[in-house]
Design a protein that fits this description.
Layout lengths: L4 E2 L5 E4 L18 E8 L2 E6 L6 E5 L3 E3 L2 E4 L6 E4 L3 H22 L3 H23 L4 H21 L7 E2 L2 E2 L7 H16 L6 E12 L6 E10 L4 E2 L4 E5 L15 E8 L7 E11 L14 E11 H6 L5 E5 L1 E3 L8 H7 L5 E3 L5 E10 L2 H7 L1 H6 L2 E3 L15 E11 L11 E8 L21 E3 L10 E8 L10 E9 L7 E10 L11 E6 L1 E2 L9 H5 L13 H5 L3 E10 L6 H7 L8 H7 L5 H6 L1 H14 L1 H18 L9 H11 L5 H14 L8 H8 L1 H19 L4 H20 L7 H12 L4 H4 L5 H13 L10 H15 L1 H4 L1 H20 L4 H13 L6 H27 L9 H21 L2 H9 L4 H18 L10 H25 L7 H15 L11 H11 L2 H16 L11 H8 L4 H7 L1 H14 L3 H16 L5 H14 L6 H25 L6 H18 L2 H17 L3 H12 L8 E2 L8 E2 H18 L3 H17 L3 H20 ...
Parallel strand pairs: 15-22, 36-37
Antiparallel strand pairs: 1-3, 2-3, 2-6, 3-4, 4-5, 7-8, 9-10, 11-15, 11-21, 12-13, 12-14, 12-16, 16-17, 18-21, 19-20, 23-26, 23-31, 24-25, 24-27, 27-28, 28-30, 29-31, 32-33, 34-35, 34-37, 35-40, 37-38, 38-39, 39-40
Helix pairs in contact: 1-2, 1-3, 2-3, 4-29, 11-12, 14-15, 17-19, 17-20, 18-21, 20-23, 21-24, 23-26, 24-26, 24-27, 26-28, 27-29, 28-29, 28-31, 29-32, 31-32, 31-33, 32-35, 33-35, 33-36, 35-37, 36-37, 36-39, 39-41, 40-41, 41-42, 42-43, 43-44, 44-45, 45-46, 46-47, 51-52, 51-55, 52-55, 52-56, 55-56
Length: 1951
Amino acid sequence: MNMWIPTEHEKYGVVLASFRGTVQHGLPLEIGDTVQILEKCEGWYRGFVLKNPNAKGIFPCNYIHLKNAHIKNKGQFETVVPTEDSVITEMTSTLRDWGAMWKQLFVKNEGDLFHRLWHVMNEILDLRRQVLVGHLTHDRMRDVKQHITARLDWGNEQLGLDLVPRREFSMVDPDEISVTELYRLMEHRHRKKETPTPVSTHHLFVHLKSLMSSNLGEELEVFFFIYDSRENKPLSERFFVKLNKNGLPKFPEKTERQCTLFVDLGSGDLRKDVYIVVHIIRIGRMGAGEKKNTSNVQYRRPFGCAVVSIADLLTADSKDDHLLKVYACNTESDWSQTHDNIIKKVNSRYNLSGSNTGLAVALQLLHGDIEQLRREYMVLFTRGVSITKKLGFSDVIMPGEMRNDLYITLEKGEFEKGGKSVARNVEVTVYALDTDGQILKGFVAVGSGEPGGDEYHTFVLYHNNSPRWAELIKLPIPVDMFRGSHVRFEFRHCSTKDKGEKKLFGFSFVPLMQEDGRTLPDGTHELIVHKCEENANLQDCARYLKLPFSKSNLPGNNQTVKGTKESLWITSFLCSTKLTQNGDMLDLLKWRAHPERISDSLSKLKEIDGSEIVKFLQDTLDTLFGILDESSQRYALKVFDCLVHIINLLQDSKFEHFKPVMDTYIESHFAGALSYRDLIKVLKWYVDRIIEADRQEHIQQVLKATEYIFKYIIQSRRLFALATGGQSEEEFRCCMHELFMSIRFFLSQENKGSRPITQTQAVFLQQFPAVYGELLKLFTVREVATFVRETLGSLPTASQADCPLEAVKLHCITKTVESQLYTNPESRCILLPVVLRLLQAHMQEQRDLVTCAHILTCMLSLLKKDDATASEEVDLIVESVLGVLLRTILEVSNRPQPAGPTLRPQVQDVTGEFVSCLLALLRHMKDRHYQQLLQRFTSKDDLRDFLLHIFTVFRILIRPEMFPKDWTVMRLVTNNIIITTVLYLSDALRKNFLSDKFDYKVWDSYFCLSVIFINQSCLQLETFSASKRKKILEKYGDMRVMMGCEIFSMWQNLGEHKLSFIPAMIGPFLEVTLVPQPDLRNVMIPIFHDMMDWEQRRSGNFKQVEAKLIDKLDSLMSEGKGDETYRELFNSILLKKIERETWRESGISLIATVTRLMERLLDYRDCMKLGEVDGKKIGCTVSLLNFYKTELNKEEMYIRYIHKLYDLHLKAQNYTEASYTLLLYDELLEWSERPLREFLSYPMQSEWQRKEYLHLTIIQNFDRGKCWENGIILCRELADQYESYYDYRNLSKMRMMEASFYDKIMDQQRLEPEFFRVGFYGKKFPFFLRNKEFVCRGHDYERLEAFQQRMLNEFPHAIAMQHANQPDQTIYQAEAQYLQIYAVTPIPDSQDVLQRDGVPDNIKSFYKVNHIWRFRYDRPFHKGTKDKENEFKSLWVERTTLTLVQSLPGISRWFEVERRELVEVSPLENAIEVIENKNLQLRTLITQCQTRQMQNINPLTMCLNGVIDAAVNGGLARYQEAFFVKDYIMNHPEDGDKIGRLRELMFEQAHILEFGLTVHEKFVPQDMRPLHKKLVDQFHLMKSSLGIQEFPAYVRASPIHFTNGSPRAGRNSAPNIMNPEGGARVVSRRSPLSYPAVNRYSSSSLSSQASNEVSNITGQSESSDEVFNMQPSPSTSSLSSNHSASPNVTSSAPSSARGSPQLSDKHKHSRENCLSPRERPCSAIYPNPLDPTQRPVPHPAGDASMPRSDPNISTPDKVVKPAPSSWSLDMPPSDFNGKGPPVPPRPPYTGSPAKTTRSQSPVMTSRSPQKISAPPFTPSPTECQTTGLVSNSPVLSGSYSSGISSLSRCSVSEASGTENTSTDHALPNSASSGSDELIRRENKTPPPYSIHERNNPRRQVPLPPSLSIPPSIDAPPIPPKPHQIRRQDTEPRRPDQFPRPRPIPRKVSQL
């Protein structure tokens, strides 16, 4: 059996192919994974993938490509680092990180970056292959690596990754370099990224494509050049392109002939007045339109000109081609000025050369050095491009540059006619000839792009004796051929006749060099035109070279030639690095030939142009030292001055590149071995005379050259020592010491009067550091360091702060620290004290901080780890500058920033550099340094100040803005140093500032720093990628945990001083515990127990701790901190901690409160992350809002969440809910003048103003939500306020708004919403929904299916439950989401308006669906054996009644179910409800038909047909069979009353049908007469089947009076029938036709009479100024569906139509939802649900339609949806006095039109089984007033009136057993006296509003702070009719109409 053997070398590899790992212990691998190998056995490796080191396994060897690696910590915990190129390693890891992020870009739809990154990744992979192959040259490898790192940095920046510090393309390890160096690297890379360095050199790329013109046909020559219109001269040579007859390049295969680069343009050349000028010359006949002749002679003739400004190219897209317009000159003689005329826009002198003539050119400006361009635009240069040089030298002359170009411009000529009648056509031919007269071949260059020629022909101007050419040619003649060469110009007349020959008529010439060696001087020369007509005369050049060539050089006596008119003007310009035009220069260089001129030549050297001197630099220096060696006594001073002049010349930026030339000269060519003596002597002579000299300028020039003078001295001495074997060493040293003594003496002088000496000292100090390196060549390090220390130490110290010498001193120190001398540890210990002294002085005075920072950076970057000398240096630096460094950082950080943006980077640089210095210093400090530092503090105050300073500085260092966002490396280093330092300093804190020496400020600073440290974003490792997190943990560990442990340790040491930090540190510590780090939480959470314990000891409670915890939790969790794990951990840790405490109970209470708050806050945060506003967001906000109000009583937070909820509602367009929400805040305010502070978006204002604003906003939203009834109440309240202030303008507006609301109620349609019950089951739901059920108010037009789908969308992971049964515990505890949804029917509270006649349906509809507390759901089932013949015998109904915590609508669209009740309705009761509802529907339709509210009679026809047809076919007969048989009556003796009631209803239905048929006959159209006849016949059959021959007397005698279409048959009549004593009263009952349906939806068991009384007292006189407080019933209605409580539905189908889960699948529903908070605020609008006086006592309610199969309904009838209305049948008066039982009385009413009368009843308003009524009375006006006051009225709601409504499939009838046992109390008969007409008129009184009338602001009795309104005994009276409120003029004014005193303010919101 083979063993697994640990591997030695095979440690690291890359996976070549994916391996599934299907073998035992196999490790799955993916291609590209990197693996670390641990062991090997027979072709298998064992190891792990580096990205998941915990999973170890085996894999085949041949799947792995091994790579070399370096192993650290060999053994069990070894780590492997690949030994490949660091760039490759970085590339690999970076590409892995990018890969994951790249896919996310695709998911986020960031297509542009996705594709760009894809290209860059591919490019990097290609470059990686090139590097790995290893075939690149060194330079190419460097370029590739640079390219790779640039791409990596680009990608990191685009993806928001970290900036990588690099040195030479390789990543640096921050532990291996100094912090200052790390900062410098980061800063350099950041600056490079942010601000690219501006380039001073620019180049113009030109590519000529073609010339487009319609009239070509001849070859063309195109010349480009750059032209300065300001100076009127060209700036560059010309670029020359030849075009063929088609306008295309003549040599297309040679790109260098079409492309050029105009090089070396300075930044000053990119101006608007610098242009690219194009001249186009045609080659052909003299005239463009001439016919072809026999002559083949061709001429160069002008064609056109084009111009474009260089400034235009700066803004243009470089990729675009330019089409330049070509212009021709009007007059040929102006040709040379055409471009000037175009630039100056002299339109008269040029015109377009054809409308479609244009030059297609590509132009692009390139920036940077030419070598850089060669790298960046390799294709350009490899393809071929010609270089067009600038005229003259560039701004910077490079030493190696070789040029010898003579530029000649042929300006103009003057010629005679030559005996001809017309002017000549002159052509000039130019030749360059050598000494022998031979033509120099190829040295006449017209321009770049084309090779040079042997001759040049100018263009010809037609008949022009004064031609102007302005043509530039270049003669690049070599230096050795220059002497003796000359240029000849031949003039020919080009005849257009005589076969076009060119006749010579003269010539000119000019020699290129004079006899003394000087070249032709620059400038314009007027050349003599010599006559010559034969070419042979020019063969021998010796003959004409003896002639004069220029008119300026003629001797005075040669007047004949001077007088001639013919001349040629040329301009010459020499650009040469070898030839000179300066005679003085030549004299100096030839000093040996003329010794007598030496003195003059040395004096004139300073006047020679610098470019001439640098051209001959070496020769000049040899000359000077040659003179010095031979005549040192005579010329030493002059030679020294010349040398100083040359040295200072090289300081000029134009010539600074020649310094290396001088350095090379000194090292390699200088031979003055004796010169050092003279140089030292002269230099000392100058230094000694500084003090006496009046003028210091020359001496300052000498001192500026100090560096190179010392270089010459040292080199000369070295040469001498080499030659003599080191002789005269002592003499030399003595001379140097004397020189330095003179220097020190001059430096020690202080100014007297003016400051010349100071300036001279400054000049020397600037140059002095450059001398160190030279001195080290001959002196030891210690000697040179001593020289420097003594020299710097001799400086005067008493200078003023603003003295310029101070800055120069610092500059000198900077150069010293940067010098080679300072890098040596031996010299550092000598120089450090003097450097630190100067540095400390500057930093204390806050001067030159940038330089100070730089010095400190350089000093600290030289400190090495574990170096003995470094430790001593750290001691010195800490002692000198640590304190001042801390103060400087504080000063700079807190300094107000200047207004100019330019200074900010400098301040940032200074802060950053000082910070890096501090960090570097602290990193070098060890235990010993800290001990010494702390021992230096002599007093506690000094130590305290130091600790405060350093803690404050640390807080500054960890600010997010301290470093740029992507400097994570720098931040981690900073944090590591901070935590190390804090650990050292915490000991000092414990030892010195505890017990009696306790200092709160220091400890507070410490804790604040620790908290900020832990909360830094750069330490939140959870947010980083796995690879980044792993690297940080390996390098630094989790620094948060380390700091957390330190906090805990320090906290434990505090003892009784902990009380000083309670409650101040609760918030910060809470923030720390919210960091998602388990170890940190475990350490920190117990501190809260400690705080509770100490607070309990001090105060006996921990209210402070609780208050602070709660306040801070909200803000922290809203920032995204905290999670469910934290909530559980907080709860468990603290509960465990307090188990044994005496205050355990209160502690548990606090922990439970905080935990519950966390639950809600977490839910709230999770919900708010979602995009759109939905029920979850609103429900969650409501839950939180209520929690703050009811449990925590945090008013400010409560109000904040009110406004958050309000904003959510507005966003979701829930305007009614938004109004109710804002009303919560409104009710906290009073109508007082108390000033309120600025809060949220409210300005500072009075309480009255804010409440007014809130009222107006709420009214506006009620209007938008169509809840005008509620808006009216607020309008009234606001109108009262305006009236009390006599603000009639606003009062008028408010009354008009109120009136408009009444109009809208009557005119606009409102939709009745559906209501849905939703159960949320399972642990996966948010806390506020979990295992709760809600009722939800649906949106407009929203039906069950749509609602279900909406809920599924909101909870995509939820499972829909397919039944309506209550779930069991397994569902409750499941780790899932279950939704149970079904429709429910609203049960409106009893309201007076629903009982009244004549109230329109659009008023009633509001009260049916608003202010609803209770809802029900009916489920039909069969109990016992089902009779197949008659199913009604066993058809029971299970009725579920749900009571909410708050009525709908409210501050949410859904509220939680507080209580559910279940009752069963018997088959008999069920039958009663079915017939009741059908009767109600019939009455409604008959009323609508009578009052002409129907468009057609069809609905009534269908309803009649359905009922009669069903009855004839056995519908009612089924009920008779089921309940009227003897067996049933015998078996159910208790149902006697109900059977009687059923019988009454059947008779009543027959009576209604008969009356309906009568109405139907009146309105039925002719074509439906047959149907009517059929109905009448069937009705007689129906009566027969029921055994009705004649209606009973009580049916006939009573008027068929439909009160608002609502028959009085209600659930309250059933108990009367069921009364044990009521058996004999069946016959004596009132007519069922006269029963108003006052309690159709009533939730109480009021008798009909009592409910009428209650309905009466809910009203109020409209003339009263008071308004009532009633339960709200906001609108937001929606269309009534087949599930709604609407009278429009005629179907009495079984509950399957309501989607009951018990029935067929077709009707089953899957899910439904409605949300409501458990804790709701209590207020006037929202009565306290726990107040029994304000809540209805729920009773089982029967559904009038849902669960039944009505036997009276036929199929067609089920689709009728008539609209209800108020109506009454006009019965004969005699019918009212029939013998039947009396009609139930109307609400009592007495009074006259002139007076308002109110009825009062002593009936208690609390819900009870019995109601007691008393006869009404008419109070006096005073009594009236009193009873109307809100303070004396109850808070009425719909709960108090028994209610109402028209037919609905969900209407209520409580006809169950013993529950309803109220007694029927009849009113006195007198109450019903009066005619029917009067009664009907009275019932048109506008109804009171279901929203409670708001409290009158002027009441004397304020509301209690609890915001709930206690019930009152008395109910407000009914409002009178409109005609009753019109007072007579004689009527005295009521007391309440006079201004009353302002209310006494109650304690209300301070916000």
